[in-house]
Amino acid sequence: MKNILYVEDDAINALVVRKLLNGVFNITHVFDGESCMQRVAETQYDAILMDINLGKGKMDGVQTLHKLRLLKHPMVVIAVTSYALPEDRERFLQEGFDDYMPKPIDRLEMITLLNRFLSD
User: Fold this and answer.
1) pTM (2 decimals)?
2) What 3-state DSSP class applies to 22?
3) Which of 35, 43, 65, 107 could form a disulfide with 20 if both were Cys (CB 3.0 to 4.6 A apart)?
4) Which residues lie closer than 8 Å to 66 by C-beta, 6 or more apart?
5) CATH (one of 3.40.50.720, 3.30.360.10, 3.40.50.2300, 3.40.50.1820) for 3-114
6) Which residue blocks in the chain are alpha helix, DSSP H?
7) What integer pLDDT is reported at residue 20 of this predicted model?
8) Beta pairing partners, 28
9) Cβ-based neighbours of 64, under 8 Å, separated by 6 or more
10) Has residue 3 got a pLDDT over 90?
């Protein structure tokens, strides 16, 4: 089973996504960018699902992505966000995310998206 790290500051959203993807992927959840960086240093993940707004006074999802990209090892990072305007997708792709999924998450769409990147 593929290992996915979900970075999300809202506990309810994290619970929903874990339930949606349970049994299909092994999901680990952290609340902020700092914890994400620590987990990535300790464990290899097949993909990272990254919320954009990660609370006040902390790195947001874009800042966390930029730090992850400095690690120089390939990893799939998908923006999972409530920013859902048509131009938001292009903005996040330009920032360096591999793909984009607006909230609320559709289970089948998310599984299809992850499988597209993670198929062996």
Assistant:
1) 0.95
2) strand
3) 107
4) 95, 96
5) 3.40.50.2300
6) 11-21, 33-42, 61-69, 86-95, 107-118
7) 95
8) 5
9) 7, 33, 36, 37, 50, 54
10) yes
